[in-house]
Amino acid sequence: MAPTLKLTYFNIKGRAEPIRLALYIGGIEFEDNRLTGEQFAELKPSLPYGQVPVLEVDGEVIAQGLAQLCYAGKLAGLYPEDPVVAMRVDEALCAGEDMSATLRPSFFEKDEAKKLEMRKALAEETLPKWLGMMEKRYSARPGDYSCGEEMTVADLAIYSFGSWMKMGVLDGIPTSILDPYPTLCGIIEKVGAHPKVKEWNDKH
Ligand SMILES: N[C@@H](CCC(=O)N[C@@H](CS)C(=O)NCC(=O)O)C(=O)O
Fold it and tell me: Which residue intervals define the domain GST C-terminal in the entry (predicted)?
């Protein structure tokens, strides 16, 4: 029997979006529970690590977004069965996490001038370094996706992060930051053109 799924996060894309996309692409029903700040503050003490996203599977609360994404991928046929290809996916997810972590200090910087200085270093050095390493890695593989011929949850994560960067939501990070990386841009374009992804984006 299909599990009852409830995904809890804020009403933004963030860490939940690739999980939502994987479930939606796979045609797997889930409750898309989006919290206000107040609701989160109320729920926080009961969360395993005080953070979201959490995914409830038949009532069991599972934390950590990447674990949830891999699980959603397994249900949706977007997580490879071949152990080596699966390891490529895990590598891509962990690398994405490491890159995202470089942005975090700038989110918490209250001084606007200092924040923009941090963002300048991110835009000119740190992010190009990470994006360049990813580009090199994924362009060397066969197929249009990051880990081989098939779309996987790694591509959903790249798409979510990449399209977010391209939206220009981060002060000091140009929307053109991904332009020098044709493989990454190709993945973002391909995932964005997937009929279920388009359908999801039209609905939200
Ligand atoms: N490693 C965790 C990090 C989760 C995380 O940082 N969640 C943020 C939202 S993106 C959060 O809950 N922030 C509120 C808080 O920590 O109070 C994961 O991947 O799920």
Answer: 82-204
